[in-house]
Write a structure and sequence with these properties.
Layout lengths: L3 E7 L2 E7 L3 E6 L4 E7 L25 E2 L24 E7 L5 E7 L8 E8 L3 E8 L6 E3 L1 E3 L2 E3 L7 E3 L5 E4 L5 E3 L4 E2 L9 E6 L4 E6 L4 E8 L3 E6 L1 H4 L14 E8 L5 E3 L4 E12 L1
Antiparallel strand pairs: 1-2, 2-3, 3-4, 5-11, 6-7, 7-8, 8-9, 9-23, 10-22, 11-21, 12-21, 13-16, 13-18, 14-15, 14-17, 17-20, 18-19, 19-23, 20-21
Length: about 280
């Protein structure tokens, strides 16, 4: 065995640390939240706020698990934002190494009276990252959900980043509730609404390229089981309302989220499972 799995801390948050010849990673059991992924010889791919807090609150950054609903979609006004999975303790069920040196980790969210559904998270750490949410319905009635892997990607300057793979897609602008069509690649300087982004793209193709000229890399994100993708950055004005993000830190991240959200609702049939998954690869510019 060539990998190590140890308990450590990241900015005072207790985490599991995975080290192998292929990568390092950090994973919080609070929220089942991936906080760091660094391929061997590379740079950090995920952003965690330097003022992030832990339990009982959600951790700002990494890859929060939004489940069994996204935002407060189809929920009462007093519902917890983005569901309860990201604020609950998860259980480490298994870790193993395959013949190629990839480290496989399986987590489970304990049963909760707020839903009949059960949730597992499967992660594979290697030269790239694979991450999946597997929702199972052991009940006798179908259950409708929305969900997301709310990835905060570390970027050199969000104002200089472009995202390929979105051109021509319809999106709901969550600032206005209106539907528009994406013209060309995504950029924070979009003249329609410059300097901020909160968009749910529908009928998404599942292959996106985050081009970062400042850090000199491209992040290739491939998703399955994801009918939507969310692109979010609050911008300079929007970040002023956050207590867990320094006002000057907003250009340091961009969220590109594999999701089923908005009009893209998933029905989990009795006895069935559905999987939302993403793969991340780091490429040179």
């Amino acid at each position: 065995m060539t990998h190590a799995l140890t308990e450590t801390t990241l900015r005072s948050l207790p985490v599991l640390e995975i080290e192998s010849p292929l990568c390092t990673a950090r994973l919080s059991l609070h929220g089942g939240q991936l906080l760091s992924f660094v391929p061997a010889g590379g740079q950090e791919t995920l952003w965690v706020s330097p003022t992030a807090v832990g339990a009982p609150k959600a951790i700002r950054g990494g890859v929060p698990v939004c489940w069994p609903y996204f935002a407060k979609e189809n929920q009462p006004a007093d519902a917890v934002q983005h569901g309860f999975a990201r604020t609950q303790p998860w259980t480490l069920e298994e870790s193993r190494e395959d013949g190629d040196g990839n480290v496989h980790v399986r987590l489970s969210l304990p049963a909760d009276p707020r839903t009949p559904l059960r949730l597992e998270q499967l992660l594979v750490f290697g030269a790239g990252l694979q991450q999946a949410l597997v929702t199972h319905n052991p009940g006798v009635e179908p259950v409708r959900i929305t969900q997301a892997l709310h990835s905060y990607f570390q970027v050199g300057d969000a104002r200089r980043v472009t995202v390929e793979g979105l051109a021509g897609l319809d999106y709901t602008d969550k600032f206005t509730g209106r539907v528009f069509t994406q013209d060309g690649d995504w950029t924070l300087a979009d003249p329609r609404d410059p300097g901020r982004s909160d968009r749910v793209y529908h009928g998404a193709g599942g292959r996106y390229l985050i081009v970062d000229p400042v850090l000199g890399r491209r992040l290739r994100l491939s998703t399955t089981g994801s009918a939507a993708v969310v692109v979010w950055n609050p911008g300079q004005e929007g970040v002023q309302g956050f207590t867990d993000v320094p006002p000057q830190a907003w250009p340091d991240f961009l969220c590109v989220e594999a999701a089923n959200a908005g009009r893209d609702v998933v029905s989990v049939a009795p006895g069935a499972s559905v999987t939302l998954a993403q793969t991340l690869e780091v490429l040179p510019v």
